[in-house]
Amino acid sequence: VPDKARDHFRNKVSKIRIATSNAQPPVIQSRSCPVLSVFRPVSAEEISKIIGSSPAKHCAMDPAPTWLIKRLIPDLAETIAKMCNLSLSEGIFPDCLKNAIVRPRLKKTNLDPEDMNSYRPISNLTFLSKTVERVVAIRFVEHSELHKLMPCHQSAYRSFHSTETAVLAVHNDIVRTIDSGKISALVLLDLSAAF
User: What's the rounded Cα separation, in Å, for the pair 189 and 193?
Assistant: First the structure.
């Protein structure tokens, strides 16, 4: 199955690249906003919080299990913070952290396990690479919120926004429209097959 899955996903990516090779580039609306080119350094205390709130999963490529790293974080936080800061200040993500173990996982339990389209590739990354990723995500969110780069109605990738808040906002808009005597219509698009 691993070779079959590998070939399936490689072919799928190749087909997407061919199908989109002549696509028009996206139109990006320019805004006057400082470029996020310098990352605020991460402290050992922040690393301790990030690692403390991380799941205890680990990758076969990790030199030590995550539970052990979490237990030793008082001794390791300063070193991990220095590694993250060096990577961000130099703009270099070490090659050893760019690897992942990719495994096929069934999208839903009721799908045919013999059909490769029933699977999605799941990448298992090293603990340190996920830690650097979380630091970058925190810095990006800070930057985007400071400069109001996210659409005000976007719920994904924002603190205190969820599917529940999105549903409440849509419900509120519909109720207010009906209360004002106007006609309301709702169009739903299921993108689950795309993911």
Answer: 11
